[in-house]
Amino acid sequence: MSAIDSTPSNNGQARESWSKSWTHLKVDRRSRGYCRVTFDHPPINTITATTVAELAEVVGLIEQDPELNVVVFDSANPDFYLAHYDTEHDPARTAALGVGPTGMHAWLDLLVRLARAPVVSIASIRGRARGAGSEFILACDLRFASRESTLLGQFEVAAGVVPGGGPMARLARLVGRGRALEILLVADDLDGPRAEQYGYVNRAIADDRLDDEVHETASRLARFDHEALARTKPYVDQVTLPADSELPPALADFFELSGRPALQARFARLEELGLNADSDLERALGRRVVDALPDG
Amino acid sequence: MSAIDSTPSNNGQARESWSKSWTHLKVDRRSRGYCRVTFDHPPINTITATTVAELAEVVGLIEQDPELNVVVFDSANPDFYLAHYDTEHDPARTAALGVGPTGMHAWLDLLVRLARAPVVSIASIRGRARGAGSEFILACDLRFASRESTLLGQFEVAAGVVPGGGPMARLARLVGRGRALEILLVADDLDGPRAEQYGYVNRAIADDRLDDEVHETASRLARFDHEALARTKPYVDQVTLPADSELPPALADFFELSGRPALQARFARLEELGLNADSDLERALGRRVVDALPDG
Amino acid sequence: MSAIDSTPSNNGQARESWSKSWTHLKVDRRSRGYCRVTFDHPPINTITATTVAELAEVVGLIEQDPELNVVVFDSANPDFYLAHYDTEHDPARTAALGVGPTGMHAWLDLLVRLARAPVVSIASIRGRARGAGSEFILACDLRFASRESTLLGQFEVAAGVVPGGGPMARLARLVGRGRALEILLVADDLDGPRAEQYGYVNRAIADDRLDDEVHETASRLARFDHEALARTKPYVDQVTLPADSELPPALADFFELSGRPALQARFARLEELGLNADSDLERALGRRVVDALPDG
């Protein structure tokens, strides 16, 4: 970070940018060192092209904010943290996202940059996070989950596609081969205690303690010497982050398999059953995604 | 997979091969997507040259079966899943196994090919799995163990040899350095809850629920789109599987150390104490293998 | 190991060297295969230049002792295993330690050599181990911790420096990215059950069972065939140990950040609050290290 970046005037500019009007997010730049981003996209916090564009903007602000130590990502909806991706029947909007500064697709790009950013990113998870929602929390540095109200999963293989946003690369390193293969191939939901046991999250925390504990941790981190934190994290990154080149092939597989007519019919069937709505299907998606499969 | 491989006629051939008569196995090709292999080699399911040859044949069938999604390996003996290797006092039979398609010794070859096969292999574990038995489950994709009736271990170092079938390479990646060194060097048995805690198995499941839960998981997997599953698994493989070149040196060490006269005397002593029989020694082998050591 | 190394006369020499007079250690060379080293540096077992020099000597003896199978490291102080590093207001004493046989700084050198030594090193942990104390246990092969009386942590980032003795490289591989980042960046203490859950230690053991269980494990290991043990461990090393080149840069960062005037003032403030003494601050250092930070 150059001396110019840390002049007060530049810092003033950086803070101003956080206060724009956001569509799917609420952003609270609480203090010099601490920012909170709250997902708020009713009814179930699906991730759309708009969400991706806004998250990419957030990551850019994080990278340019020389005093920021910690960003907490939580949800305004206690039942859904981030449901999963929704193309809104208009793949062109997703395609229009283009590539980011790393040269990768906007979604991969923002996840990779978030993981390398010189701050501590914390996913404070209450409710469901599946598919791209799970991919997002896996790109955060720390994951704390409501013990009673969490469901995590990568349901893609059960639907007939390859997960595209890096969970093979990240889960394989985080929870080991056996549990990563179970999460990805059995493709069912994990609740909070199971997610903690498997190491999918750092810890499950009693729901009525989650917000306070995450806030205490973030408040502590906000006071730290930025330089010590920013110089320590890359040593962990170099051991634990996938190479960039690992990620794009699976996303290409995702697009290829999604484009098959049988898959488009299957997703249409899932939508009839309640996909993308606050439905019984969405509440139990990991278990019920197979309802759209042939009898086998 | 070529178009020819997935023609019905070829598929018909593949299914027929499963139904041959097996010596140490029972094979139930339950449905298009699901196969169950049951170890049945009284009295304690030792692994011999015959078992290795049959397992190699099973792996070949798995590789050629374009619609198979899941293979469950369980045991007909509730006390012994796979005891360990037994040369039957005739090392020539083991030597005669030769090398497999990977160029490695038949045992390493079949484990490596099973781990890379485009299906989900599940070890449904009840009873004891030690030495080569543990090496087999470590090469499976998922491991579910009876909470009450499981004992796992690599007893080799306590007997005076290097484990030869890859457990250093696999455990080091699965459970981390500290726990891998404990399992391999202290070389004692782990029960179901400890195996779950260490990540040696995915989960310990109450004994009276184990069969049902594994069957439900396998039935779910059997319905999945084979292509999605077969394209997702290699992304985990590339992060979590050892390079082939890692494996043969430890097997060479195993053969070298086993060949020392003191070791042959030690194994003779263990056999007097009950090795390879349904004995008190075999039931507590991890603890009691040291009974054959000098007093130290 | 050469034939000469294992002649009885050379072995006699090796044993004699263990029995010198030690300043911060008690050394009990219990049997041919088993040695116990007890940290005893009142009041709180800080690590100083003297401790490092003596530990380097111990590692040299371990390397030259052809019959040794296991070394247990425990503490004479039930409240402090190894508090952390203390320069004793004289950085020149630390600088004078120079480099070891690996070409690295004496502290990194002894940790790297201990991890590669052909014995099983066991940290039997009761009390606090933070900073360099945590770095020491992370370089041991096995870690067993008192369930009731353990506090582990890397408090450095909370104090404003980069941890210098390898914990990023070791924790990242041991507990995975999320939990490693939490331990290193949140920089708070973990108690025994949490350390076990995260995999920071192999297991937490009831305090009144810890000594007996570790002794039983060490006595078992002492009887093993040295060759089998010494040939098995390197296969785990090659998968789980960091490359030597990973370690020095973080130590350079530690020295650079420690040298900043603001940091020297901060450590002076911590010393006023009780650092390096048997104080309330030391007993809760992970939580209270932030007392020396600006309000933020």
Structure description:
Three copies of one chain form a homotrimer. In chain A, strands 1, 2, 3, 4, 5, 6, 7 and 8 form an eight-stranded mixed sheet that branches. The longest helix of chain A is centred in the last third of the chain and has 16 residues, at 207-222. With 296 residues, chain A is an alpha/beta fold. Chain A starts with 7 loop residues before the first helix and ends in an 8-residue tail after the last helix. Chain A has helices at 8-18, 49-63, 91-95, 106-116, 132-139, 156-159, 167-175, 177-186, 192-198, 207-222, 226-240, 248-258, 261-273, 280-283, 285-288, and strands at 25-31, 34-39, 70-75, 80-82, 120-130, 142-153, 190-191, 203-205. In chain A, helix 2 (49-63) packs parallel to helix 4 (106-116) and helix 7 (167-175) crosses helix 8. Chains in contact: A-B, A-C, B-C. The interface between A and C is large, with 34 and 38 residues.
Entry keywords:
296 residues; homotrimer; 8 strands; alpha/beta
Number of strands of chain A: 8
Oligomer: homotrimer
Measured by residues with Cβ under 8 Å of the partner chain's Cβ, the largest interface is:
A-C, 34 and 38 residues
Radius of gyration of chain A (CA) equals 19 Å
Structural class of chain A: alpha/beta
Q: Assess the beta-strand content of chain A as a share of residues.
A: 15-25%
Tell the overall outline of chain A.
globular
Order of helices and strands of chain A: HEEHEEHHEHEHHHEHEHHHHHH
The span between the termini of chain A is: 56 Å
Number of H/I helices of chain A: 15
